[in-house]
């Protein structure tokens, strides 16, 4: 999941070198934390959170085959 979020985020931002993704596994759920440059925050979140919601949907669909719950946090 970490790699998927990283690829999506790097394709959206102007400063891909500042994208940091960490993954923490707790039981049946995985928490993926995404950090980007402050100037790129709006590009990752999108208008009314639409891009963030789309990222979460894609990751959730990819995790469904592993029977895991994934939470994507944008920091």
From TrEMBL:
Signal sequence bounds: none
Pfam family, one: KH_KhpA-B
InterPro entries to which the protein is assigned, alphabetical: KH_dom-like_a/b (IPR015946), KH_sf_prok-type (IPR009019), KhpA (IPR020627)
Location(s) in or outside the cell: Cytoplasm
Residue runs in coiled coils: none
A biological process term (GO) from this entry: cell wall organization
GO CC entries: cytoplasm
Keyword vocabulary terms for this entry: Cell shape, Cell wall biogenesis/degradation, Chaperone, Cytoplasm, RNA-binding
Major location category of this protein: cytoplasm
GO molecular-function terms, A-Z: RNA binding
HAMAP family in UniProt: KhpA
NCBIfam families, sorted: PRK00468.1
Summary of the function given for this chain in its UniProt record: A probable RNA chaperone. Forms a complex with KhpB which binds to cellular RNA and controls its expression. Plays a role in peptidoglycan (PG) homeostasis and cell length regulation.
Entry similarity comment: Belongs to the KhpA RNA-binding protein family.
Subunit details: Forms a complex with KhpB.
Name of the protein in question: RNA-binding protein KhpA
Organism: Robinsoniella peoriensis
Organism phylogeny: Bacteria, Bacillati, Bacillota, Clostridia, Lachnospirales
């Amino acid at each position: 999941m970490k790699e998927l979020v990283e690829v999506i985020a790097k394709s959206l931002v102007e400063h891909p070198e500042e994208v940091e993704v960490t993954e923490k596994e707790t039981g049946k759920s995985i928490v993926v934390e995404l950090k980007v440059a402050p100037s790129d925050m709006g590009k990752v979140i999108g208008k009314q959170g639409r891009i963030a919601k789309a990222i979460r949907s894609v990751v959730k669909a990819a995790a469904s085959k592993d029977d895991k719950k994934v939470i994507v946090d944008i920091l």
